[in-house]
Request: fold
Amino acid sequence: MPSAETTFLEAIRQALQRLLRERSDVVMFGQDIGAFGGAFKVTAGLQKEFGADRVFDTPISESAILGAALGMATMGLRPVVEMQFSDFAMTAVHQLLNNAGTLHYRTGVAAPLVVRAPCGGGFAGGPFHSEELEAFFCHMPGLKVVYPAFPADARALLLAATLDPNPVVFLENKYLYRHVKEWLPAEWGPTTLGTARVCRPGSDAVVLTYGAMVHEALRAAELVHAEDGGEVMVLDLRSLKPLDTDSILAAVAATNRVLIVHEGWHTGGFGAEIAALVAERAFHLLDAPIWRLTAPDCPVPFAQELEKAYRPNAAKIRDALLELLEH
Amino acid sequence: MYSVGCFPLVNRGLPRGGALAYSPRDGMNPQTDITKDAALALLRVMLLARRIEERLIRLYHQGRIFGGVYCGFGQEAIGTATTAVASADDLFAPCIRDMTVHLGRGTPPRDIFRQFLGRANGPTRGRDGNIHYGELHRGVFAFISHLGAMLPVVTGGVMARRRLGRPAVGFAYIGDGGTSTGDFHEAVNFAAVFEVPVIFVVENNQFAYSTPNAHQFRCKDLVDRAVGYGIQGVKADGNDVLELRATVAALVEEIREKPRAVLLVCETMRMRGHGEHDDASYVPRELLAAWEQRCPIRVLREKLVAATLASEAELDALDTAVQAEINEAFQQALGDPAPSPSTLMEGVYAVG
Reply:
């Protein structure tokens, strides 16, 4: 049994490797993912191991990549394609929104495909390499949206996403790739999409979050505990569509105070959807207004000073929690 | 205005210029290079489309079809010729005016009426309307409105079929206006790079909604674009189903064996508005009058009669039979059920 911890990036690579090894219907393609191994090296070594007909490079054509994946998916393959950055998926958004997302509803034909999309900021990527677009993806009918925060979840959920009969957008927060590692259990789980996980128990407030912000929230919860003894629950949503509403409502019932955190934009952000859910279904359980801590409504800035001001982090979450607990 | 019924199915006596006689010995006519049965099958597909669309137009103006009606008058030969030479494994992404692709692949007229009427048992079960349908078990992808968006889909479909051991060829249809989209460029380049056997069939019907060729592209001829993609470009008369069939048959045979993408530009004319809401007053009348002489149904009828493959009376009888078939299909579809509102959320996701 391996004793070393595995990075988020390596966990995803292991899932891709297992898929290619065990499923002859899986193919992977995208920009620079072959011999080069991808912009982040997630697919390093896969073309060498499985051949250029299973893992291959394409022209810089996001729409052709997504459209071809859709065509393949209807013919019995399970394509797993990479958008080099999730930002670039928006140049082909019609393929997701209008073609892939509507196909089964219109024609009854299933399209099992996965779009891997590296996302998020915190590393001076600027306006076009840092975007958080999960709200866009979640807004589209017929798509599923997965957003893991831990290596073990990423590994298992990528497997589950590929075996799902629907188009799935699999968001990989770039900050997590090399910053987060853990020991991976022999058993792969969860095996289905749509289950949240309590990462830290607590009874005074809950942080509802996902992606890189789960780790910031965990640090903030420790800070709060050290400073005033408050016990803050952190719920990692893991999958945004389908959304584990039962776990969200149970967390609200257990804590009565809600802070929603994400690094995407405020207006129309996914946090607004969660807030609406809590207000509609659990208003009577709340001891304080629902709070949201998100990125502000401005493009993702480049300079470190600006991006630090832009992006939520443990210190900002701590401040918000202390205020929320006093409410 | 070009209107319903303005394509009279009579031979106006175009010169026959040394027509060769039909040779019953081998069943092939040397002038048309086609058997009588095969020729009548082509005519039948074109007549079905024409008569269905005439009925759809009437239904639209009677307010019995909601949404819109978009017709392929004048372009029937293109889907007819291409499907006629295809195999069961082949894949199609028809565009706006390609009812003959559906009919050529075997979609029954009743299902087409169900689609336009939004019936629960139509190809999209009332989830989508008019030209946005396709039956994948016949190798036909359902068209979405975003022009060019289906081109990479059929390309990927052909790549997958070939990987799974089925020697498919793809047919991706697009209009002159659609060649201006980014998706057209992405898909043709993608298919060219991966040597995917897809024929990109450009139906140059001279107008994209109201915009003429002159405001759509600057190159002398759309077929010139093939050079830029490093693929073969072929120019064809889109209104002569026999010629087009022979051209496409040769191309398909070649690329099925030695896979590569091809750009096939068919010159044709949109004989009605973009949709039935559009009177096409921006189209010069004399242009329509000239193209009316080139009606693909008329062209085929004249060739068959000139080659003595069939008599006028025979062809008229075929048309009459088609009209009867259409009437029956339409009446059946009228009686088919509308979707129940309780099914609204059914099928958003696949289960399994």
About this structure: Chain A touches chain B at residues 27, 53, 58-59, 61-72, 74-77, 79, 94-95, 98-99, 102-112, 141-142, 144, 165-166 (CB under 8 Å). Chain A has 13 helices and 14 strands. The CA atoms of residues 116 and 300 of chain A lie 21 Å apart.
